[in-house]
Amino acid sequence: MAECCLVRGRELARALGSVHGAPPHLASLSLAHCSSLKPHAELEHQASGTKDPDPKPQGPSLLMLQALQELDLTACSNGIYPSPPSLQQLSLRLLPALTDKGLVAVARGCPSLERLVLSHCSRLSDEGWAQAASSWPRLQHLNLSSCSQVTNNTGTLDAIGQACRQLRVLDVAVCPGINMAAVRRFQAQMSQVSCVQSRFVGGADLTLTL
Description:
Blueprint: H1 9-17, E1 28-30, H2 41-47, E2 70-72, E3 89-91, H3 100-109, E4 115-117, H4 126-132, E5 141-143, H5 156-163, E6 169-171, H6 180-189, E7 195-201, E8 204-209
Parallel strand pairs: 1-2, 2-3, 3-4, 4-5, 5-6, 6-7
Antiparallel strand pairs: 7-8
Helix pairs in contact: 2-3, 3-4
Pfam family, one: DUF7885
Protein name: F-box/LRR-repeat protein 15-like leucin rich repeat domain-containing protein
GO cellular component, one term: SCF ubiquitin ligase complex
């Protein structure tokens, strides 16, 4: 469904709701560049911090796709939809509307993520990561390239390193608030990390690879 710019959230929900019986065993879904999609009300519920050990969708939503493992929401400019906890790979690239509150909602709703792409999410900041990082102990690949408000002033890289002990690849290219000293310290503390992409960090063009 990538680039279906005229597909709206209501039509998507109706399509999901048309499935009778158990939800479809769909493992991968791309809604990239579906610019008419709008966020579901459940995202606000997740972001509010309400504890629900067995969340159930209020009406049709992506939460019905309980076997979904890969979801691409690149450039869904109007927002994001709540995703099932089974999700392992998620792309939220080019989402200028994604805030720290939305990041925390994603963290609470998708604790099994192994690969997360957040490049060009210009509203994400250190405050969001301070709350979200601990929810992703399985994370192996993290792309924060061109996230202009992510810095290391409050130890964001250190927090990610402490929480995401299975991390293997980190991309902080073109993050002006991350300096090379922070990148080198992160690399030294995280011996299992095989690659840190750090092009144009602190004015340098460098990729640290073991």
